[in-house]
Amino acid sequence: MAWHGSERRSRLPADWPVRRLSVLKRDGFQCVAILRDTGARCAAPATDVDHIVPGDDHDPANLQSLCRWHHARKSSAEGAAARRRRVSRQRPADRHPGEL
């Protein structure tokens, strides 16, 4: 997620830097994502702390350390899912007069 134009940072708790460091230490500063092809843990260094369940639950149990690649992939998938759930604001197409 690009931080520019986002209010996400303002929704983080005041002690976010401490929580973030705590989660990174807990996870050994290594990405916790599991690789699909091998079932092994990603060996890349963790650079980001991510909410497992999206939202504002900042409990350490809902936080995980991810490498930049896995974090971007997860965020992209969550954004795509959110877009699919949105109700279309586009006006439905008019039916052909012969079908009325």
Automatic annotation (TrEMBL):
Basic and acidic residues composition bias: residue spans: 91-100
Region (Disordered): 74-100
Gene3D superfamilies assigned: 1.10.30.50
One example GO MF annotation: endonuclease activity
Keywords from the named record: Endonuclease, Hydrolase, Nuclease
InterPro entries linked to this entry: HNH_nuc
Name of the protein described by the UniProt record: HNH endonuclease
